[in-house]
Structures are given as structure tokens and as C-alpha cells.
Write a structure and sequence with these properties.
This protein is of the alpha+beta class and about 230 residues long. The chain is built from nine helices and twelve strands. The strands form three sheets. Strands 1-8-3-6 form a four-stranded antiparallel sheet.
């Protein structure tokens, strides 16, 4: 019998949201659980890809490394998100590195099991196409922001995205529980940590946000004045 917690997680994953109970049971039984410590490499760029991953708990960072040693953070994934599916579909090597940012438990679906599920569940195949399109649009938006916005605007846009994905409405505004480090933000907006620090401090001085350790609150005025 499928692990109820694993089965329930798969129900919350966007690409599996519409499958029936029997399909969920099969997915849960096929998935292997693997634990990673903070800072562990899940897979590296250009490695062969024979599995996709669903995050049961924890958080990962998707990153590219340049020839000069500089890294560019593409995105973060949290519990309920999935990654690594591209290599299963096009049989190409991994396109980026994935590293855990905290202790994490990942559910691993092998290529043959995932493709078998796609053959049995056309709805999942449609959901995969929809999700890939959404991520492609997001990548286009990021590229446009890097080209058209200054650092101030790029940091503000990134904070808005975090608020949309992980924000919680509180009395003071929108609370972002787990703000990336200033170095992570810098690598996401193609700037330096020092510049990001100045931008965040300026936003706080203007009363547009509040910072408290890893937490940050976007005030209502942020949405009208920061961009």
C-alpha cells in the first residue's frame, strides 16, 4: 500500500493534480525516497539524466556556473515542486546544477516509470506541457528584466515574485518567510552582494519593506512605489 504522506504530496504536485487515486497510488509506490544534507549536489550540469525529482521536504537551488567561477541562480524549488523532467523527455544531459539549501528529502521517479505513467495518463502529459510553457515564459521574463531593468528594479521584481510564490498576508503587508541570502539575490539579478545590500537598505529606509533575519515584509506601499 502506498505511503499516505507520499500519496498526498503527489496530489499537490501540479503535473499530477488531475490523476485518479489508482494512478496516485502507483506513483507513490514507484517513487524512491532519498535524503540530502544542506549543500548537497543533487545533480550537476551536463550529467546524464535518468530520473526526475519531487521535493517531499526542504528546498533546492538551481544554479549555473560561469567559466570565471561566478554563479547564476536561476530559481529555487520548495516542497511540492518538481524538477529534472526535461532530461527524461528529450534524453539530453542536465541543463543546470541543483543544490540543496537545507536538509531535504526528495522523491525520485526513474525515467521508465515516469514515461509509463505518461502513457497511461494523457492528462499528466498535458500538465507537463503547460508547466514547461509557464517556466519558459518565466525565463523570458527574467531575461527581459536583466536586459531592461536596473539593479533596483531587478531586486524589486524578485521580491515581488517571492511574495507571490511564498508570501503570507499579515497585518503589516506580505510576509516572505525565507528570503534568499543577499549573495543568492545578487546571483539571481546579476549584481554584487554589496549592491543588493544597498538596495535592500534603501527600500527599508523608504519604509517599503521590513527585514528581520530571514524574514522580510513587503509593505502595501512597496507595490506602488518600488517599481
Amino acid at each position: 500500500m502506498a505511503d499516505p504522506a507520499v500519496r498526498e504530496l503527489f496530489r499537490k504536485v501540479s503535473i499530477f493534480a488531475d490523476v485518479d487515486d489508482n494512478a496516485l497510488d502507483r506513483l507513490a509506490n514507484m517513487a524512491a525516497s532519498k535524503d540530502y544534507q544542506k549543500g548537497a549536489l543533487v545533480f550537476g550540469q551536463d550529467e546524464p539524466g535518468d530520473a526526475m525529482f519531487v521535493i517531499f521536504s526542504g528546498r533546492v537551488r538551481v544554479v549555473l556556473y560561469g567559466e570565471n567561477g561566478k554563479d547564476i541562480t536561476l530559481t529555487f524549488f520548495k516542497a511540492g515542486d518538481f524538477f529534472g523532467e526535461m532530461s527524461l523527455l528529450d534524453e539530453q544531459n542536465r541543463s543546470a546544477n541543483v543544490i540543496t539549501t537545507e536538509p531535504s528529502t526528495l522523491l525520485v521517479l526513474k525515467r521508465e516509470d515516469f514515461l509509463k505513467h505518461l502513457n497511461e495518463s494523457p492528462t499528466t502529459a498535458i500538465n507537463v506541457i503547460t508547466e514547461l510553457s509557464r517556466r519558459l515564459r518565466k525565463a523570458d521574463e527574467v531575461i527581459g528584466n536583466l536586459a531592461l531593468l536596473d539593479v533596483y528594479g531587478r531586486v524589486a521584481r524578485m521580491l515581488l515574485e517571492l511574495a507571490e510564490n511564498d508570501g503570507e498576508q499579515v497585518e503589516e503587508g506580505i510576509l516572505i518567510h525565507r528570503r534568499p541570502t543577499q549573495q543568492d539575490i545578487a546571483s539571481m539579478v546579476n549584481s554584487s552582494r554589496e549592491t543588493v545590500s544597498r538596495v535592500l537598505n534603501e527600500l527599508q529606509k523608504r519604509g517599503l519593506l521590513l527585514m528581520d533575519g530571514k524574514k522580510v515584509i513587503l509593505k502595501p506601499s512597496f507595490y506602488s512605489e518600488a517599481l
